[in-house]
Write a structure and sequence with these properties.
It contains eleven helices and 14 strands. The protein is an alpha+beta fold. It has three domains: 6-136, FlgT, N-terminal domain (Dodecin subunit-like, 2-Layer Sandwich), CATH 3.30.1660.40; 140-307, 3-Layer(aba) Sandwich (Rossmann fold); 310-389, Alpha-Beta Plaits. Strand 4 and strand 5 (156-160) form a beta hairpin. Helix 6 crosses helix 9.
Length: 391
């Protein structure tokens, strides 16, 4: 399990700011905690696309420069690289405003220089939150299953069930590059990605979650990507063909079949000199643009699970209705428990939902220490605890 030394995460600085606000009764202007920097970035090629890439890299460099002192203070922290990769994926999100000062194109390379105002406070707060997520949730194991639609007929879209489609492959490559653990078909002999893709087509969340469990995954990222011919363009007397692509994804928690996030990305456009065959290029561009945002969405969904109360499913064997009432009376008084609800008791197995503010491990410890009902923890996952009444 990953461990993070929270004493060096800069959380103290955030608390000090909060204490100052409480003591003075005055709001701290956010722009006082922003920093203006000038940074450069470059990208291969020429034209508008290369310019956009160069500006994006310059803004990322601006964030790194503005937050350099903070990053240096974290560099010796456990799992520094894992947290850094996740937060820097959304670097542009910390830029409040910017101006492109200069763009140069020479020898097939485009260089952009920008002046940007960076929110260092938001950066540090997000760093603390993501580091906490890494500690609380232990980086989810993920299965990615994206259905691709690239052809339209008179009856609708033709869906491609390739296990290594353009979008899926690029998203998987990006997740791997950021240290996310991906589960492939080797992890489950009885399940292939094709089975998951078929469940995606049927929009069956329960089946998707069940198959994700066979991959030994915590999260399944499912989605539908579509690409189609858009329109014909005339650029400088040259005819070009434009293709557009969009992606809709859902992040499903395996052990509870709960949908953690729903996101839509695109449209991404790709212009080609040839008519036909541009769909894959548009999908590839879409995947490259959406992968960092999708990873951020997965992390944010898991962060929210650790920041607010969650529903933990308990399965307690050898429990009858009278014992349930005794259990409810004591469990409802445990610190962090907001509600205890009985779903059913079937064949001496009680299925119970508990609204809880802290980690599952913490809840399992509390339950095993109860006085009125003696319980033994037999299995624990991210959203579920299986217990047995012990005499």
């Amino acid at each position: 399990m990953m461990r993070v030394d929270f004493r060096s995460l800069g959380i103290a600085a955030v608390l000090v700011c909060g204490a100052f606000h409480a003591a003075t009764g005055q709001d701290i202007r956010s722009d006082m905690l922003d920093k203006w920097v000038v940074a450069t970035g470059q990208a291969a090629g020429a034209g508008e696309a290369a310019k956009e890439q160069a500006v994006a890299k310059a803004l990322r460099t601006a964030v790194e420069q503005a937050c350099g002192v903070f990053l240096t203070s974290q560099s010796k922290t456990t799992d520094y690289k894992a947290v850094y990769d996740k937060i820097i994926a959304n670097a542009v999100g910390y830029v409040r405003e910017y101006k492109v000062l200069e763009v140069l194109q020479q020898d097939g390379v485009t260089m952009a220089r920008v002046r940007a105002r960076v929110s260092t406070r938001k950066f540090e707060e997000d760093w603390a939150a993501i580091a906490h997520t890494v500690e609380q949730e232990n980086n989810p194991r993920v299965v990615v299953a994206i259905v691709e639609r690239t052809r339209q007929t008179n009856t609708g879209w033709t869906e491609e069930l390739a296990e290594a489609g353009v979008v899926q492959s690029k998203i998987e490559d990006f997740f791997l590059s950021k240290g996310i653990t991906l589960m492939d078909r080797k992890a489950a002999e009885k399940t292939s990605k094709r089975d998951v893709l078929l469940a995606v087509l049927k929009d069956d969340t329960q089946q998707i979650a069940a198959m994700g469990g066979r991959f030994d995954a915590d999260v399944v990222v499912t989605g539908r990507a579509s690409a189609k011919f858009g329109k014909t363009l005339e650029v400088g007397g040259v005819r070009m063909y434009q293709y557009t692509a969009t992606l809709t994804v859902r992040v499903v928690q395996v052990d509870s079949a709960r949908i953690l996030a729903v996101k839509t990305y695109g449209p991404a456009t790709y212009n080609s000199l040839q008519r036909g065959g541009g769909e894959d290029k548009a999908l590839a561009k879409l995947a490259e643009e959406s992968a960092p945002k999708l990873l951020a969405a997965v992390i944010e969904a898991w962060r929210k699970r650790s920041a607010v109360s969650r529903t933990v499913q308990l399965s307690i064997s050898d429990m009858d209705y009278e014992l349930w009432k005794t259990f409810k009376a004591e469990a409802g008084k445990l610190q962090g428990v907001q509600a205890v609800r009985l779903r059913e008791i079937t064949e001496s197995v009680a299925n119970i939902d508990v609204e809880y503010q802290f980690t599952n491990e913490n809840l399992a410890d509390k339950l095993s220490e109860m006085q009125t009902v003696k319980l033994k923890v037999e299995e624990i996952t991210a959203n579920r605890i299986r217990l047995k009444v012990s005499n």
